[in-house]
Each structure stands twice: as structure tokens, then as C-alpha cells.
UniProtKB/TrEMBL annotation:
Top-level taxon of the source organism: Bacteria
Pfam families per record: Hydrolase
InterPro entries from the UniProt entry: HAD-like_sf (IPR036412), HAD-like_SPP (IPR051806), HAD-SF_hydro_IA (IPR006439), HAD_sf (IPR023214), PGP-like_dom2 (IPR023198)
Higher taxonomy: Bacteria, Pseudomonadati, Pseudomonadota, Gammaproteobacteria, Alteromonadales
This protein's name: HAD-IA family hydrolase
One Gene Ontology molecular-function label: sugar-phosphatase activity
Amino acid sequence: MLNKNLLTHNLYPDYDAIIFDMDGTLIDSGKLHENAWRLTLNHFGIPINPQLMRSLAGVPTIETAAILVERFQVTLNHTLAEVNQFKEAIVKRTMKDFVKPTVLSELAIANKNIRPMAIGTGAYTEEAVSIIEYCGLTNVIDFIVGADLVTQPKPAPDTFLRCAELMDVAAERCIVFEDAEKGIIAAKSAGMFVVDVQAEFNIENDYFLS
């Protein structure tokens, strides 16, 4: 595990640009989404399986809902869009009760105006912008790419490739910080070097741990 005191602009100097995943990586938001999902799934009568939910970390809300409905053969009296809206409304309403920056925010702050930085997230862009603003990192991060800005979100590489495009940096010159398996797959598929923040920084996403 890397010593957090080494989180300076010189960390990983071989890369010209930095891409952070948001939830569970740059931002501690596991309980925000767990709370929102528990309320949503209970409301719509969809079973809660913590292990399955954790495996779907990084998957956009509406796609997660579709997977759960199919997996549990649930007959919904609402559209997936309505499930999505219900959950996202809870996230927006309760955001300030749960989110806070992780130690990686120190790395981001240290690299301000030194290397371009982007967030590539499975969350929707509007939500990500609000969270980053609340956590005081708006003036640090150059670009935010949410699931709604790409044709195929994680585990496809599109999110990270779009980040690289916006930063005008070749994919192989980008380093990605990720906590979720699907995000790690996405970064590798994009041809980028990826750091597993759980292994390197001991950042544990407390999302559906039990």
C-alpha cells in the first residue's frame, strides 16, 4: 500500500494526464448509493442481493435496474425510466448526508494546473458535477464524463477514451484510478495504465458490504 504522504504531483510521473473514477475512488459515496438503492428496490418490490449489487458497482442506474428486473423476474408496474428517476431523486436529496472526498483528492489538488485531469464515471454527468462541486473539487478537475455522454458506459472503454479526447492526450499517456472491476476492465480496454485504488491506497468502497 502506498503511503498517502507521497500523494504529490510527482506521483506516477510517466503519465501526462490523470483520470479518476468518481464513486469509491475520488469520492467516498458508497453509502449514498446503497441507501438510495435500498429505498428504491424496496419501493418497487425488487429483491436486494448485496453481493450482486456490489458486483454491479459502476454500472449506470437504469442498466442496473434492468439487470435486477431480469435476474429476479420482477413484473414492474413502472418503466425503468421511472425507477431511474426515483433513485436519482434520492441521491440528489441525500447527497450532502453521505459524500466526502477520499485521500486521492490530495493527488488531484497537487496536480492542479500541472497535468490535465478528468473524471470518468458510471454516474450521470449532472449528478457527478453536483457531487464534485459539493466536495470542493470543481476548480481542480478539468472535465467530467458521465454515463450519459457516451454510447457505451463501463465496462466499455468509451468513457475513458472520451476523457482522453477532451484532455487532448493519447490514451497510452493517461493513468486511470479505479476501484471497481468493470472500471478496471474499461481502462485496460482503452489502452490505459490503471491503478486499483483498493490495493494501492487502501480505499475501500463501503457499498453493499453486507
